[in-house]
Design goal:
The structure holds 2 protein chains of 2 kinds. By secondary structure, chain A is of the alpha/beta class. Helices cover 26% and strands 32% of the residues of chain A. Chain A has one domain: Rossmann fold, CATH 3.40.50.880. In chain A, a hairpin with a 5-residue loop joins strand 5 and strand 6. Chain A is globular, with a radius of gyration of 15 Å. The relative contact order of chain B is 0.14. Chain B has 10 helices and 11 strands. Chain B is α/β, with parallel strands linked by helices. The chains are: A alpha/beta, B alpha/beta.
Chain lengths: 205, 252
C-alpha cells in the first residue's frame, strides 16, 4: 500500500487516482501509524512552504515523514512536497524544511515570467537511476515560483531549463522528489510514477 | 525550453457540455469527462472548464464532474465560472481541479485573489479578464458577467493589480475578437503580456492554426485557448502544434 500523506495541502485526489490507474493500492491518510505501516509514501503539496511546514509540525507528521524516510522505504515528494525535503526555503521569509536533503529553495529571480508554468523538457542528469528505466526524456508539467538548489550534485537526477538549469528530479537512496506534477504530465509523468511504484515492495502492489 | 500551451475550453452546464461539440468518436458528446479525456489524448496541454450553471444543483454537479475528470486525465485543468469564495475554491481543488478561474467575483472583491493565492498558492489562481477596446480611452476596458457589464476599469491596470494580489496567471479574453475567428487580439494580448510578469493565456478569435502562431510571437502570449474550432474539428490540436513547430514555436 502507498500512503498519500494528507496534511491539508492539496492535490491528493489526482495523485491517488494516478496511482490507482497504475494498479496500486493507495490510502490518503493523516494517520502516522498508517503511514509508517505503508510500503511506500507520497508527500504531495501545493501552496506555501511555510504553511505546509506549519501543518506538518502541528500534526506531528514532520516526524512521521522523517521516520518513514529513515526506514528506507520509497518516499516521493511532489512539487511543494519535493521542496519540503530540503533544509530550508526563502518563500515569504525563512522557513526550515524537513532536512532530508541538503540544500535550499529560492525564488526565481530575473526578467522573465514567474511562475515557471507549463510543459518543459527534462534532461536526465543520472540516466542510470532506476526511476528512468526504459524512459526517454520528454516534456512534463511544471508550476512553481521557487526552485530547489541541492547542495550535493549526486542528489540531482534531472533538470529542466528555465533561464537557468532548474532542479526537476532529486533522489537519494529510496527518497525521491519531483518538482513537476507527474500526475499531470501525460505519459512520461505516468511512466515516472510507475517506475517509482516499482521500487515499492511488490507484495503491496 | 518552456513550450507554448494549447488549451481547449469546455462550457459546462448542469454537468453537461453545452455549445456545439461535433465529435464522431464519442459515445456521448455532452459528457465533459469523456471530452476531456479525448482532448488529453489529442495532445491538449491543459483544459479549462467553464461552469455556466445558474443553479446551486448545477454547481454541485460540477464538483462531481471535476472529481471524475481528475481521475481520467493526465493534464492540468482549470475550473472557472461562478466561484465567489475561498470555500468554493477549496471544494473544487479538493475534488481535483488544478487551478481556479475567477472573473466577476475578483472585480467585485479583489481580496478574493489575495486570499486565494495566500491559502492555495499563486499557481492555483487564474484571474480571467474580459476586455473590450474603449475608443474614448484609447485602451481596453474590463467587462464582467460574461461581457454584459462595463466596469470603468482599465484592463492593463486590473491585470497589474491581479498580479500584485497574487494571481499566478491571467486568462485574457478579447470581447472584440471573440467569436470572429479572425484571429486573436494581438495588440491587447501583447499589451497585457508585456505589462505583467505572470503568464498570459490568450482567448477569443482563434480560427486557424496560423492564429496561434501569431499570438505566441506578435501577441507574446504564453498559452492560447479556443473552444469552437476544436469542438467542431475545424482544426485539431495536432494541426495547431504541427503548424507551430513549422514556425519555430516550441510546443510539446
Amino acid at each position: 500500500m502507498i500512503a498519500i500523506i494528507d496534511y491539508g495541502m492539496g492535490n491528493l485526489h489526482s495523485v491517488s487516482k494516478a496511482l490507482e490507474r497504475l494498479g496500486c493500492e493507495t490510502a490518503v491518510t493523516s494517520s502516522p501509524e498508517e503511514i509508517l505501516a505503508a510500503d511506500g509514501a507520497v508527500l504531495p503539496g501545493v501552496g506555501a512552504f511555510g504553511d505546509a511546514m506549519r501543518n506538518l509540525r502541528e500534526t506531528g507528521l514532520d516526524a512521521t515523514v522523517k521516520e518513514f524516510a529513515s526506514l528506507g522505504k520509497p518516499l516521493l515528494g511532489i512539487c511543494l512536497g519535493m521542496q519540503l525535503l530540503f533544509d530550508e526555503s526563502e518563500e515569504h521569509g525563512r522557513h526550515e524544511g524537513l532536512g532530508l536533503l541538503p540544500g535550499r529553495v529560492v525564488r526565481f529571480e530575473g526578467d522573465y515570467k514567474v511562475p515557471h508554468m507549463g510543459w518543459n523538457e527534462l534532461t536526465f542528469a543520472q540516466a542510470s537511476n532506476p526511476l528512468f528505466e526504459g524512459l526517454q526524456p520528454g516534456y512534463v508539467y511544471f508550476v512553481h515560483s521557487y526552485h530547489a538548489l541541492p547542495e550535493k550534485r549526486e542528489d540531482l537526477l534531472a533538470t529542466t531549463d528555465y533561464h537557468q538549469p532548474v532542479t526537476a528530479i532529486v533522489g537519494r537512496g529510496s527518497l525521491y522528489g519531483m518538482q513537476f506534477h507527474p500526475e499531470k504530465s501525460g505519459e512520461l509523468g505516468m511512466a515516472l510514477l510507475r517506475n517509482f511504484t516499482r521500487l515499492v515492495p511488490a507484495r503491496s502492489l | 525550453m518552456l513550450s507554448k500551451r494549447i488549451i481547449p475550453c469546455l462550457d459546462v452546464k448542469d454537468g453537461r457540455v453545452v455549445k456545439g461539440v461535433n465529435f464522431v468518436n464519442l459515445r456521448d458528446a455532452g459528457d465533459p469527462v469523456e471530452l476531456a479525456a479525448l482532448y488529453d489524448r489529442e495532445g491538449a496541454d491543459e483544459l479549462v472548464f467553464l461552469d455556466i450553471s445558474a443553479s446551486v444543483e448545477g454547481r454541485a454537479t460540477m464538483i462531481e464532474v471535476v472529481r471524475r475528470t481528475a481521475g481520467e486525465i493526465t493534464i492540468p485543468f482549470t475550473v472557472g465560472g461562478g466561484i465567489s469564495s475561498t470555500d468554493d475554491m477549496k471544494r473544487l481543488l479538493r475534488a481535483g481541479a488544478d487551478k481556479i478561474g475567477i472573473n466577476t467575483a475578483a472585480i467585485r472583491h479583489p481580496d478574493l485573489v489575495t486570499d486565494g493565492a495566500r491559502i492555495f498558492g499563486a499557481q492555483c489562481i487564474v484571474v480571467a479578464i474580459d476586455a473590450k477596446f474603449n475608443a474614448e480611452w484609447g485602451e481596453w476596458e474590463v467587462f464582467t458577467h460574461g461581457g454584459r457589464n462595463s466596469t470603468g476599469i482599465k484592463a492593463l491596470e486590473w491585470a497589474k493589480e491581479a498580479e500584485c494580489r497574487g494571481a499566478g496567471e491571467l486568462l485574457l479574453t478579447s470581447m472584440d475578437a471573440d467569436g470572429t475567428k479572425d484571429g486573436f487580439d494581438l495588440p491587447l494580448t501583447a499589451a497585457v503580456s508585456g505589462s505583467v510578469g505572470i503568464p498570459v493565456i490568450a482567448s477569443g478569435g482563434a480560427g486557424s492554426a496560423r492564429h496561434f502562431a501569431e499570438v505566441f510571437t506578435d501577441g507574446r502570449a504564453d498559452a492560447g485557448l479556443a473552444a469552437s474550432i476544436f469542438h467542431y474539428k475545424e482544426v485539431t490540436i495536432r494541426d495547431v502544434k504541427d503548424a507551430l513547430r513549422a514556425e519555430g514555436v516550441n510546443v510539446r
